[in-house]
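Submission sheet (multi-component)
Chains listed below:
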Amino acid sequence: MSRILTVDLGTRSYPIHIGPGLIDRPEILTARIAGPQVMVVTNDTLAPLYLEQVERALGAFQTARVVLPDGEKYKTPDSWGRILDELLGHRYARDCTLVALGGGVIGDLAGFAAACYQRGVALVQLPTSLLAQVDSSVGGKTGVNHALGKNMIGAFYQPRAVIADTDTLRTLPDRELAAGIAEVIKYGLIRDPEFFTWLEANMDKLRARDTDALTYAIERSCRNKAEVVAADELETGERALLNLGHTFGHAIETGVGYGAWLHGEAVGVGMCMAADLSARLDWLDTASVRRIRSLIAAAGLPVTPPAEIGPVRFRELMARDKKTLDNRLRLVLLKNIGKALVTADFDSTKLDEMLVSSCPQGC
Amino acid sequence: MSRILTVDLGTRSYPIHIGPGLIDRPEILTARIAGPQVMVVTNDTLAPLYLEQVERALGAFQTARVVLPDGEKYKTPDSWGRILDELLGHRYARDCTLVALGGGVIGDLAGFAAACYQRGVALVQLPTSLLAQVDSSVGGKTGVNHALGKNMIGAFYQPRAVIADTDTLRTLPDRELAAGIAEVIKYGLIRDPEFFTWLEANMDKLRARDTDALTYAIERSCRNKAEVVAADELETGERALLNLGHTFGHAIETGVGYGAWLHGEAVGVGMCMAADLSARLDWLDTASVRRIRSLIAAAGLPVTPPAEIGPVRFRELMARDKKTLDNRLRLVLLKNIGKALVTADFDSTKLDEMLVSSCPQGC
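Outcome: structure written.
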C-alpha cells in the first residue's frame, strides 16, 4: 500500500515513503539513523499525538526531544537556537540524527538546525501535515523567518529520508488540510495539467480525507517536486516555478503578521492573483482563470487578499521578496494551466491594476 | 609575482590569489562579485587600515559595511545575527556578495552569514592574517562559537575566490604572525616532510617577514590545503588530518576562555602534545618529537599548556570536541614527520600519562 519515490541527487539521493501506518514500521525510520544519538524535534500539538509512537520506534537509540510551541510565529532564530542548545546540552556528536516530526514550521526549523549543528548532521523528515508531505519536507529548503522577511535565513540541506505517514493527516484541522491542498494545486498549475483536471474531479474526496485520493495526490505532488529539485537543487532556474503564488502570498503573510494566515491560504490567494495578472497580460485565457479560482475555492481556500492590505502596501511588501533581483520584481506567471514561467519582463501597470482590482471593496 | 592556485571542486571550483598589492588591483576582486550589491564585513582594527582601499576597488558597486569589534570572543551567534540584520536592513538581494576582510574570525562569521542569508549568497574571502591566508579562508569551513563549544554552529560553504594580499601581513602583530606559522608547520607535519625541512631552514626569514619566504610558505600551505579539501570537502576522511593539534588546542582555548590564547598558539601546544603522545605509543621516534618541539618554539609559539588546566579538566574539555564519535575520543596522531592518522584506537593510559607529564609543575 505504501509507495517509495526517490529524489535523485547523486550521492545525496534519498527516498520519500508515502502511505498509512509508516510510523508503526520502525525499520523504515531506523534504516536512516546515522549514529546512536537521535533528537526528535516537534511541537506541543503533535507531541501528545505521535511522539511516544516515534520514540518507541527509536527504542534502540539514545533519544532526546525538543518540544516547541506550535505555530508559524515560532519559526524564529530563537527556536532554532533552542534546538542547538539542546543538542549541545546533551553533548550530541557529529554522527547524531535529527528527526523533524511535524508540519512545515518544524521541518524548516529542525532542518536548519541539522544543517548548522557541527556544520551538518543527519536529518529525517517525518511530515505530519499535508503541506509538509507534498512540499516543504521534500527538496532541502530549510530556514527561519526574520522580522524583516519570511525565510530570509536558512540553508539548502537535504534530508536522508522523508517518511510521509498519511495516517497523521487524520488529526489535521480542516483549515490546514485546505492549506496543503493549495500546494497540491500548484503542481497542476505549473507543470501537470492532467493532475489539475484530476483535482477538479476529486476535490470532494480529498476534503473528505479519502485515503486513496490523498495517497495519490501526495505521491503525484512529490513526484513533481522530486523532478524539479533533481533538475535544479539550488533554484538557479526551473525550481523557481515552485514559487507560483508565493510572492503575493508572502506579502500577505508578512502584512497580516506571521501566523494569522496559514502559508497555504496565502499561496491560494497568491495563485489567484498570479492567474489574474497573467490574464491581464494576455498570457492566459479568462476561462482558465475561472477554473483556477473555482478549484481553489472548492478546496476551501480564500481567493481574495485580506482587507487590511491595500495596493500600495502590497507593492512595498512584495519589494522585499527574495525573488527581487536588481530591484526588479520577478514573478511566476502562467501561460496556461500546466505551464508557468518566471519573469521580470511584464507591464507593471497591469500589476497595479490587478492589485487595485483584487483588493476587497473599500481598499 | 602573484600566484594563482585552484581549489578543485567541480562547478564550485575557485581560485586562491597570493601575492603583494592584490587589494590595489580591483579587477581581481570585482571579477568575483555576483551582482550590484556588496557588503564588506571587517573589524575595528582592520577597518582604518584597509576598508577604504577595498571600497575604492569596489567603486562601481553599491557597498555597505559591517564593522565588528576585533577578537575571537565576538565570533558568536550575535555577531552573525548583526550581519544578517544589516543585509536585511539594506534590503540586499539574493545576488549580493559578502566580502570578508579580516582574519579567521571575520572569515568564519561572514562566511556563515553568506551561507545562511537567503539560503546562500556569494562570498569572497580577503584574508589579512597569516592564519586566515594559509588555512581558515580556504576550504569552506564557516561558523561561530557557542558557550558550550568552539565552532559548534556553522556550515560548509565555499567562497567564490580567496584573495591573499601578503602586504596586509605587514600590520600583523608578531604574536598573530607566530599563530599563523603554527598552521603552516601543521601541513609539513601531516603530509609534506620536505616543507617541514624547509621551515626548519627558513623560520628566521618567516619571522622577519621576508616577502619571498612568506609567499612561498603561503602558497605551499594553500596547495596542501586545496588538495586535501578537493579530496574530502565535507571531512568524512582525510580532511580530518588538518585537525592535528586541534583537539588539544580547542581544550586549551575553551579552558582559558576564548581569546586569552590565540587559536594558533593553542594549536602549537596541541601539536607538541600530539607528538608526545605519538612517541609514548611508539609510533614516532623521540628525535622527531624534539625536532617538532624545536620548530614550534622557533616560531615563537608556546610548547606547554597553560598552568590553570590540569589533566582531569583537560580530559573533560576534550570530551566535548566534535571529533568525539560514539563517546570515543578520536585524535590526529603522527607516524612520522609528514605522516598523520586519525584514530580512536590507542592506549588511553598513555594519553593520561602524557597529560600529567605535559602539565607545568604544580598541576
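Remark: Residues 211-231 of chain B form the longest helix (21 residues).
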